[in-house]
Amino acid sequence: MSGYGDITALSNMLQETNNGNEEEEAFSQAKAFAGPSSAVAPKPTRPVAGKEKKEEEGAGDIWSVDEVPDEEGLKLANTSESDTRAVPQHEIYHKQDVDSSDVYLGLSDKTPGSADCTHLVIKAHFPSHKLSDIDLDVTKNTLTAMSDKYKLKLYLPQPVDPDKGSAKFDSKSGILAVEVPVLEKEWE
């Protein structure tokens, strides 16, 4: 037995079978490239009057670029150019009601993440101010606290119930602490 002769004979035999089975080859190649999009016939596209301009601006965009403010635009919405008041130092804390069964036994579905928090606590620093100097407004999504020197407007990270909130002002440290409950059904 010669190895080279056997390989040559096998090669010739395969070439003869490949020439006769062009249909099977085409089918196997088509099968290799089959996917979900090949099962559905493509829909013919025809131009619709007036859509050419929208497609040029951004295909599939919900809003145009002019309608969406950038982050700087949102910061400018916080203070107008004529308003020279400074933004006070502030912090946002997430508060959660837990008891010993949550901490030690793990019997509830609560996690330490912010998704399971029940309240938001916002602390804003208004040094050398009195309570009567500060104007506070809390809505479902924003908090606004203003004085003669400071203006704070925040978009809250979660929707809150402004009617059930409470606010405390420590005149010694000049810290305004606002605690509002998170609306659970809207957060989920």
UniProtKB/TrEMBL annotation:
Instruction: Please indicate which superkingdom the organism of origin belongs to.
Output: Eukaryota
A molecular function (GO) term: dynein intermediate chain binding
Q: Where is the composition biased (Polar residues)?
A: 9-20
Gene3D superfamilies from the entry? 2.60.40.790
The PIH1D1/2/3 CS-like domain, residue ranges: 87-183
Q: Spell out the GO cellular component terms annotated for this protein, sorted alphabetically and separated by semicolons.
A: cytoplasm
Enumerate the residue ranges of region (Disordered): 1-70
Entry-linked SUPFAM superfamilies: HSP20-like chaperones
Q: Name one Pfam family in it.
A: PIH1_CS
Q: Which GO terms describe its biological process?
A: axonemal dynein complex assembly
Similarity comment: Belongs to the PIH1 family.
Q: Which PANTHER family match?
A: DYNEIN AXONEMAL ASSEMBLY FACTOR 6, TWISTER
* This protein's name: PIH1D1/2/3 CS-like domain-containing protein
